[in-house]
Amino acid sequence: MSSRFALVPSAALALACALPAHAAGIDFAPTANIQYDVVRFDADDARLRDDDAFRRARLGFKAKAGRWQFVAEHDFADRTPADAYVEFAPAKGHGLRLGQFKQPFSLEDAISDKQAPFLETSLLGTYAISRRLGLEYARTGERAMLNVAAFGQRLDGTMEGRGVTARGAWVVARTAGSLLQVGGSLAADAPDASRASFSASPGTALSPTRIGASGTLAGVDRIDRGAIEALWLHGAASLQAEWGRVHVRRDLRPDFATDAHSVVATWSPTGHARAWKRGVPGSPTGANGAWELAARWSAIDLDDAGIAGGRVRSVGLAASYFPNPHLRIAANVVRTSRAGGADAPLLAALRVQLTY
Q: Which residues, 6 or more positions from 197, have their beta carbon under 8 angstroms from its beta carbon?
């Protein structure tokens, strides 16, 4: 990342610390998401090595004034800006956002990693657009939510290209302590470099090794993405499922298509229900002393158009303990396998997370 971009969030953080908490009607609040991971592998592949490091070291602040909000964060672990945007609420249930933020595509990616049951996303997370510079309109009602955005590159100059994306969710049934929601996402973008790639992680971002990969797809004209989702919350239990598909349209070469699935079930033995806001579930509410257990199955198919990227499956178990709303201790075990592969690596990971 260029020093020019690196100075933007750093200067903003310094300004936030220097200003009083309530200046000229502006409310300032510091934010943090610090995650330290320890990972251990049981695998024949020597490239899958044990490691420990900061997965996140994200610091920032929020500033609110009336209908306006400004957010600036910098991740010192990735050495890149994270969120950096201004948001305006013209009326109740309406919102406009301009800057860099997580683009609205898929239920799984909409869930903050601070609150997700597992330490990393499932194989479906391969399709996420993630954070880009863009403009978003959000409409939120009691039973329906819609986010539409146009996006470009990242603030650090990477992931160049332009596109549009949208995610909608509808609450089809709701009673005391129970909710059923369905939804879907659509996106299309054109990378400036005319290249794309998709790969399957072994379950941790600390390892660069991939279990399956499409390799670099050249001659890309457009990437179309779609996903459908379902979410059921019932007391201390929840179930979410999602299916996604990506169609890579190429010039003078065969198109490439890939699809992925994910199913996640959670249960809190301490009786804490998952939070829910604007169509997105979170961690258990009333988190003091809360436990959450989770199981997940996911798969991705990266074989198409003569490309043997692999058909990969992943199963995992996870547990999280919340001593208080700011501290989380989480662990998961994930086994990933590739069809026809001789090795099925087992990952065990532990995370200590501090947020505010």
A: 213, 214, 215, 216, 217
The percent of residues in the chain predicted with pLDDT above 70, rounded, is 93
Pairing label, strands 274-277, 280-284: antiparallel
**Prediction pTM value:** 0.90
92, two tokens: 């109740």
SS3 percent helix, strand, coil of the chain, rounded to 5, is 5, 60, 30
Which has more confidence, 319 or 11? Answer: 319
d(CA 79, CA 4): 13
Q: Which residue has the tokens 């406009």?
A: 96
The runs of H, that is alpha helices, within the chain are: 3-18, 107-110
**Three-class secondary structure of residue 15 per DSSP:** helix
What does the alpha-carbon distance between residue 296 and residue 116 come to, in Å, rounded to a whole number? 12
What is the residue extent of each domain of the chain? 3-355
Q: What is the DSSP letter of 271?
A: -
CB 27 within 8 A of CB 16: no
pLDDT at 26: 87
**The architecture CATH gives domain 3-355:** Beta Barrel (2.40)
The Cβ-side half-sphere exposure at 267, using a 13 Å CA radius, reads 4
Taking CA atoms, 270 is separated from 236, 280, 285, in Å, by 8, 22, 11
